[in-house]
Predict the 3D structure of the following.
Amino acid sequence: MTALVLLIRRELQLALRQAGDSAVVVLFFVLAAILFPFGVGPEPNMLARMAPGVVWVTALLAAMLSFERLFAPDYEDGSLELLALGPAPLALVALAKAAAHWLTTGLPLLIAAPLIALLYGLPKEGYLPLVATMALGAPTVSLIGTVGAALTLGARRGGVLLSLLVLPLVIPVLIFGAAGIEAAIAGFPARPHLMLLGGLLLGALVIGPWASAAALRQALE
């Protein structure tokens, strides 16, 4: 646990030196969400119905902007080899990367999401499920993105390949996240969707770090 905390602290310190990356992610999220009304029209009821899907789709696309930089800087300057030779297992390093990504990217998106929903006129019944689904779904996306970043490390056109790998895997998160908000708005319980998102998070938490570690070892060989 001490090693995990130290690794997360290291990642956060590196992220603070490049705080502009997190700002770009949030800015993309806001701008992409604002563009939708220009394409579909300003009709309030339509925008309110679109709000859950728009928030989730734009949040996922925004999060993907930073996946490529999860391991690339450490791989290029040799830090990743030192981490691999250190006492902490690579799975723990990958878990720290995912946790730092959530703190620097997922958490700002979680904070910005209700503001976007407010612009779309989301009914008040949908705000709590929105925060709950984002709180469960964003860490899952970070864990999946860590696996994708490790698999494409050192590959040519890794950004394109990373998108092709990650997008199909995060579709269940998108489906259950948006469906949970829509269910709450319609008067149905959002708990089943939240439980499914929790199950996806637990599965990603168990499988993700080990899959990332295996891919990192392959990239370092």
Q: What stands out?
A: The chain has one domain: 2-220. The longest helix spans residues 90-119.
